Amino acid sequence: MTEDHGLGIALAILAFVIAVILHELAHGYAARALGDTTAAQAGRLSFNPLRHIDRFGSVLLPLMLYVGQMLTLGHVGFMFGWAKPVPVDPSRFRYPRQGMAVVAIAGPAINFALAFLGAVGLAAFGAHGMSGSFFADFIQFNLLLGLFNLLPLPPLDGGRIVAGILPARLALYYAQIERVGILTVLAVVLVLPWALGELGVHFDPVGAVLNQLVPGIGNIMLQLVGARARF
Length: 231
Known about the structure:
With about 230 residues, the chain is mostly helical. The chain has one domain (about 5-225). Helix content is about 70%, strand content about 0%. The protein is built from 9 helices and no strands. The protein has helices spanning about 5-35, 40, 55-70, 95-125, 130-150, 155-165, 170-175, 180-200, 205-225. The longest helix has about 30 residues, at about 5-35. The radius of gyration is 19 Å and the shape is globular.
């Protein structure tokens, strides 16, 4: 591995860590603004990445995906993981369901704002060199994280937004999906596409949509700030 390649990987990891941490901090600060100080009391309103690491989602799953793909494909084509969710107590909100929806929206919203700032950085410093690679990764990671979390499946942010919009009775039933929500997400995003791919069937609706939306929205942002680069 060359020095430049190693630096490029380090900058990509930095871009990803910033996107994930600020996503979680946005949830925590939104909750505090609505009257819930649970995250602050738990020491989670911190920029220290160690406070946001989830043993499985942040370490074991990405490591298994990396090793598995390197052994079978010889390269990494897809990565997936998550940080430890910021604790939120909706009972402290005046309107618990609607408050949770606002807290949920805050995560993707900050990612979209960060992606736009990345576009500004790319326009200012150019698309070449390490800075260009960093800002390009920063835009893509933030857009990917924001869009993926808007999928309407609990415990993703989109699921909690839907629960805040639905009538109370329907929201109660919908929220119960969260018990198996992460398993559903993993099945749809990882297991099912892989299993069907082994049978020669291409089925990856989430990946297909994200592969269209991420570069599409990224290019719109770049056009807005006058950047010459394109995804």
